[in-house]
Amino acid sequence: MIRVVCKAKLKPGVDIEEYLNLAREVVKETRKEKGCIMYTLNEDINDSSILTNIEEWVDEEALNQHNKSEHVLNIVPKLRELRESTEINLYREVKY
Amino acid sequence: MIRVVCKAKLKPGVDIEEYLNLAREVVKETRKEKGCIMYTLNEDINDSSILTNIEEWVDEEALNQHNKSEHVLNIVPKLRELRESTEINLYREVKY
Fold first, then answer.
1. Which of A43, A46, A91 sits opposite B52 (nearest CB)?
2. Residue A67: how many CB atoms within 10 A of its CB?
3. Of the four listed, A17, B15, B20, B48, which is most buried by Cβ atoms within 10 Å?
4. Is A49 on the interface with B (CB under 8 A)?
5. Is the pTM of this model over 0.95?
6. Total structural domains in chain B?
7. ipTM score here?
8. What is the pLDDT of residues B63-72, one digit of tens each?
9. Which of A23, A52, A91 sits opposite B44 (nearest CB)?
10. Domain encompassing residue B56
11. What is the CATH number of the domain that holds B23?
């Protein structure tokens, strides 16, 4: 299983609802994907221009498939236009 | 419910196992806390010096209690000494 944190900072002046309406569509479609365990969109409590996906995928192949999906290819470029920055990290849980 | 992402970057040359041994103790004790839903420690797939907690708490009060716990007060300062940087964000999931 892999976890993904995708932290986006919106450009100043961007309408957050415009961003969220597009992002909600990605959430809805992504949750139907076979290899998706968890896919959430989260707003920073202290800064509403920081919007972060916290995700769990069965494996890296599932994430690769996601990145080639129609909803990602169609909608994510529009989201990126509204962002100042995007920070993506892929993680494996450590052994305890 | 709130989510927390705490992303730490270790100082160059720090022994990752030394860091993990301390961090595992925090994980073990934190998972016993009443308001803790999920508490995981994750290593970046592409950079093993990036170690990130992905957490879920029942509410902000539970997180405040955690930050005053003995294991946090005793161990987290030692972890911070081994880190170059620490980035903490608190999140609420958006409405879909």
1. A91
2. 10
3. B20
4. no
5. yes
6. 1
7. 0.96
8. 999 999 999 9
9. A91
10. 2-92
11. 3.30.70.100
